[in-house]
Amino acid sequence: MKNEITLKEILDPISVDLFFKEYWGKKHLVIRRNKFKDLFHWGHLTKYINRYPHVPHLQILDHDDKDNRWCLDKRRKKQLQGPMYTKHGIYQLWKKGKSIVIPFASYESKQLVDMLFEFEKYFKKGQVNVYASPQAGSKSFPAHGDQTENFLFHQYGNVKWTMYKESIPDKPKTIIDEFTLDAGDLLYIPSYQYHKVDTVGPRILCSVHFTNKDKQSLQNFKITEKDKNKREKWLDMSDVLEKTKKQVIINRRFPMSSQNWKRPYFKHNQKK
Fold it and tell me: CA triplet 119, 217, 212: central angle to 5 degrees?
């Protein structure tokens, strides 16, 4: 059985202590490596879109070429004007270069759930958003800051990042860093720091993000044990197969056919 994901493994080669002392809530961190790049892949995206419209959440960026975002939830609630796209319509927008956002994607893979359980020892309950683009130049969000601590796991393709010195509520003016990340790389962005994404080709990105615990500090750091976490566990429906396999092995070792087990017994216990 594979060991559970640990924060040490997630941040490798940066130590957990160094991360919280030097980066947490202060500045972004780039970790170039080749890990955790199968959290959400093209197969996951294909299955998700093929379940449409029986999916809980879906967003299309720049769906009308006017930089407007289309949200399935808002359209269902009639909070958004415009078309209710068919599955074919969603696919056509994708072929035209429109980016897709899948919010609340935490339970799309077991690895994502395992990762959330580990992160939530240190942060409040979080969630996962998936960002996918079909080509270079596909629009993403303009420069913005988030209210959450963001850990960006690059799954496929290259993504160009622009980081700004300013944080909310100031306006983004001063670029302090620009870089391109590949599959397997990790980027941490502290809450409120301005950043911007440019697509340079097809890409999939997982944003795993959290808010900080109340009054959390280096001097009074709270860690929540996994068994105290109220998040729903990942259920493996194939567990029953392992039990069945064990029973099959037992039956093969000790077959219960009428003669195979009777003969040795009676032969051994015959009176002499």
Answer: 40
